[in-house]
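Weekly modeling sync, notes
Attendees: AB, CL, MP (scribe)

Item 1: holo prediction request
CL wants a bound-state model with guanosine-5'-diphosphate before deciding which constructs to order. AB pointed out that an apo prediction alone won't tell us much about the pocket. Agreed to run with the ligand included and paste results into these notes for async review.

Input as submitted:
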Amino acid sequence: MSEIVTYTGRYTADSRDQLLTKISKQLKPGRFAHVQRVEQTAIKLAKEYGVEVEKASIAGLVHDYAKQRPDEDFIAAIHHYQLDPDLVNWNNAIWHGLVGAELIKAELGIGDEDILDAVRYHTTGNRYMTKLAQIIYMADYIEPARDFDGVEKARLLTSQSLELAVAYQTKHTLLYLLENNQRIYPKTIDTYNAWVPQSGLKD
Ligand code: GDP
Ligand code: FE
Ligand code: FE
């Protein structure tokens, strides 16, 4: 059963249906279905953790808005918005949140910095994450179609403690990247240092 949130106009001039139409034009069907599952997961978590449901819905729907854009769009945006110049040395995985937030602001007219930060940090996390950002980070990781070793543990932790769940994802994503000889974006390491060592996480 999906929950349809009625938007108030505070964060986007679009209705949810209008926003969905715009997002559907940016994404292939599988990715469009994913963002709707992330939205529903985020709405549930928002209710559990006392976060505004409308923000959770919008952030969930837009979090991967830029995922299927060509590299040139991200390079142009990094220059145009004078973002950290080192970003040009990275790739879609890092860009679609950190740079994608600027495309969402410009193209969808969503200016709420809490929503934009939740998009910015949904892949790498960040030293500071609002409760909304933590919810989007976790919803993306545990949405019902996710199926990987540890996802059940992540779902259980998310229902018990958002902070411990963020620590769990941060640690296990870093382990995964290391095991696969991937390049680690510095913010990913900052997130690890901020969230994991003092968390009390056991596994
Ligand atoms: P998705 O957009 O819903 O597929 O999920 P995410 O936005 O969370 O992740 C996108 C990809 O980024 C995943 O494959 C992650 O493993 C990868 N990723 C996250 N952090 C880093 C990093 O520091 N370096 C690299 N190379 N990839 C990362
Ligand atoms: Fe993503
Ligand atoms: Fe996603």
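Recorded for review: The radius of gyration is 16 Å.
Action items: CL to compare against the apo run; MP to circulate these notes.
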